[in-house]
Amino acid sequence: MAPGQKMYPRATVKKIVKAHSKCNVSKNVDVMIFLDYVLFMQTLVKEASIDSKQAGERNISAKSIRKVTPDALSKFKG
Amino acid sequence: MANNDPNNPGPSRRGALAALSTPRMAATPNRQGIGGEPASGRPSASARRNNAAATPHARAAIRAMDQRRAALFTPGRARRRSLREQRETPRDLLRNLSRVLAPTSKLVSSSSSPDSSARDGDSTLPSFAEEDEGDDDDDFPIERPRFSLPLGPEEDDDDDLKPPRLSGFEEDNYTMQSIELPRARVIDNTIRSSLGSIRYSDYMGPDIRSDDAGIDSGFFPPATLDDSGEVIMEEPAIIERLDADEARRQTIGGDSVFGAIEIPDLGNESTFVMAPAQSPVRDPTITGGLAGLGSDNGPLYEVDDDDDDVNEPMDMPDFDIEDEPDNVAEDTAEDTAEDHISTIEETAQLRTAPLSRDRVIKRKKGKRISRHGIEYPSLPPNVVKRLATTFAKTAGSKGKISPDTLDAIMQATDWFFEQLGDDLSAYAQHAGRKTIDESDMITLMRRQRQTNASTTPFSLAQRHLPRELLQELRMPVPIPSKPPRKKSRHTVVEGEEQEEVT
Hints:
Chain A has one domain (10-75): Histone, subunit A, CATH 1.10.20. Chain A is 67% helix and 3% strand. Chain A contains 3 helices and 1 strand; from the N terminus they run H-E-H-H. The longest helix of chain A is centred in the middle third of the chain and has 26 residues, at 29-54. Chain B is mainly alpha-helical. Chain B folds into 3 domains: 4-182, no CATH class; 234-374, no CATH class; 381-501, Histone, subunit A (Orthogonal Bundle). In chain B, 80% of the residues lie in helices and 1% in strands. The model of chain B is unreliable at 1-49, 115-135, 152-156, 186-365 and 477-502 (pLDDT under 50). Chains A and B meet through helix 1, strand 1, helix 2 and helix 3 of A and helix 8, helix 10, strand 2, helix 15 and helix 16 of B.
């Protein structure tokens, strides 16, 4: 998150949600959505790092992320 | 005779018991002849421990000691349960072994009682029954002959001590089973709710095109989800489906993006590569046709290309629309010729190397189609990677993220946004709106347990978002966040007004 850098493409997030929900997205909701996504990423990466450490890997492996993804998603199921 | 070998790895006490019985062996010449061979081998090893386990009480004491030792090695909490399980498992294994080996070992038991020898000769099955009966009924008729035998009496002694444990164990087993079931249910919930939709998203990405014939088809997939979910409720099927789905995910999940993208590539390459590559490949495939689980679009398309020259030009111009007929053709192709498919799959595997380049390139461009038939881009990977690295560093690892990992994260991201979109649309529609509002997002985060009395969305945003975004959050948040339900209705009304305006 470098200072001059844009945190995320707002329009893209809006498009994604709009496509999935088939609803319009009001003005500043995308910020909240992105906030939620950040939280999701946090839990996902945290769990994956724990899992990969247990597996004895230094870095986060794709396998551990795939393994953790369902849990993280179910955690963020509204 | 054969029983001796499997019994050896088991508790050594049995060997000791065998030694005890051996002197009697000498007394009865007839029985010696039958059981003599094992007895002669045993006593050397067993004699050492005979001294320790002379009496049944001593044996019981030794058992207790062993159990305590085992208890020390069992992990933490449910020691006693785990102990029971451990006790159970080796014995059950030994029992099963003995029963399996029973037909061969029966000769020994038969030797103890010459009367039963006729039965043993008849068939193996009655021999099993005899063993069971023998365990229960050992007290009266069978005891004497078995004492003479080395192995028989040992097992009998163990059985005498066992019965109380057996009853306990069986009960424990039932409870354990009952306990395990709810675990499966939990898994079901995850599957249904989040994963169910997710899977379909994965499949839908590539498959939607096949289904897309009418945009209305978007409504059908959820119905299939419900069906699958119901089916999943039933016990064993769950696991299988999960595994299968996971496998598909792994293949498709990574490849789903490719799957969609592959189509043009195949079309392009089909003209050049197809002719040389396929003809040699098919021959080996017929012999060893590994029908891959991921019989996906990619390989099938190749079939179409090969068989139908007409399809090739189709593939070139439009990817999305053209896929539909291709898929149909693929289905027919699958039904007709399995050999072709297997060959094609292999060819596809061979080609993956060259295709991968094109896939990467086209992936960026590649747009996916949501359930509602709307195209959407995926979040740019550099944004995702930046987020992931920062969180990975905070999580303690080095923060390097390999491209494979990034792929997996991107997949999770897509699933997340689909799930989120579904939830938000459900909330908005429940409120009678067609616009997703701040209140929807707040209820969603509350239901996700991300926000509660102590953590407001604003505090979360302060922690995770830069200031520019914070400022935009700050404006709307105070309105819906605090007011209880009365005002939420007002917000709903406002939302409707906004809809009208927009």
